[in-house]
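#lab-general

N.A. 3:47 PM
ok so I finally got the sequence cleaned up, no stray characters, all 496 residues accounted for. can someone with queue access submit it? mine expired

B.Y. 3:52 PM
send it over

N.A. 3:53 PM
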Amino acid sequence: MKILFWKHSNDYDKVYRWLIIVVPVVAAALSLWIGLRQSVWFDEAYSIMVAKRSASEIIRLSALDTHPPLYYLILKIWANVFGWSELALRSLSVIFYGASIAVAGCFIKRHFNARAAIYVLTMLLLAPLLMRYGFEIRMYAMASLIGVAATVMLVRAHSSKRWTDWLIYGALVALGMYTLYYLALLWLAHLAWLVAMDAGKLRKFSWKECRWIGAYAFSLLLFLPWLSSFLKQVGNGALAPIGQPMNLEQLVGIVSFNTIYQPLWQLDVIASILVLAIIFVSVRSIIITFHVKKKNDILWLLVSYISVPIMLLMVISLYKPMYVERYLAHVAIGLVMLVGASLALSTERETREVWRITSPLVLLVVLAIGANNLGQVGNYNFQRMQKPNVNSVASIVKCSENDVVLAADPYAAIELDYYLPNCQIYFASSDQHLGGGYAPLDGNSRQVVDTKKTFTRAKNIYDVYYSDMKASLPGNYREVETIDLPPLKITKFSAG
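B.Y. 4:20 PM
back already:
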């Protein structure tokens, strides 16, 4: 009983033409809806704070942080046109997210068939990791678009051998390096594929056949203005270790690409079974596909797309912890393309109906669970297991001329800066140089060393802190009320 599959290719083409328009729009809308239900967290607030500066200041601050300046410059231009609301700011990433889905769907349709594109588009509609970073006011959705667009242009240039195509590819590589340094791992994946494809031509060293060498030289030329800043970032520790050393838990997260995404249930057994199901279905489909398609260059490119960045970052993280899932969000789209295309091609050859039906259903069910959990739980703020709720502070704290807000640290101060633009925001910190993500606050008069001497004239002080980080205040201030908004607490003090 073949109820899930059409008999004629024209039927798939009709469905594809509908999905290639609907899926990017629906996925983008769903991502935006989830994003608007939660607060701007530190990294996003940092993006906004940087984007409000002048272009020269954006470049200076970017050189002190871990990311290049292109996204912040684009965000500034976008916000100056459409405003600084959460809707406007998140919409930029959402557009990048929807566009990356459309490009991926067209790519699979061109190099495989409409059926494979349908599988990929359906999976991309529900992919939690992509959806999460599709609404963040950060550069990850933009990086995903550049990554998949560069992959499309790589294949086109390798096939056409036209210098114009190779130069466009080189320009995309440079744009990627100005957006997210971790895209370099994807460029190495591209390079590995090119070397494998042109191994014989390289021995003869024919420029006509190996024009991609010139494309990379062109990209390096475009990146030269920022190269010294990049080297300084590496040298001064801006690209410092982050996260935990590579372990078994992280390996499982890499394999599943956070598909289940912090399940609402706490039944590790169920979560493990689902991850194993993902692995089994995916690997089985890929093996069958390669058996059927003994020589498929595009499949090998997709394998390289996901394997090279993951393996390189895994090896690096054994010595210097650098693996954070958002740094590989752009790789997740390659994983979906590989699994979706392989699943479609392998099920075409299946003789047992059970595999034709259950294989896609397993993946779609797991993805749906992950997407639902993302909508329910929200965007995790590092290790805080609560939904960020800094936006709730704005509904409680009403600043008058003589009121001040005291944040527990620069982290909280940057988050509050977006939601309380009319308040005098201070933060308790030692008198030290602030770098990295705190660089916009460096030298700011709002950095308070001794709270007992600073706030002698304030009428009300709103102390915003995490858990036991409450600051000490002058003795003439009495506690009026405390409001608990996990992970935040707000304590109001009044003079007299």
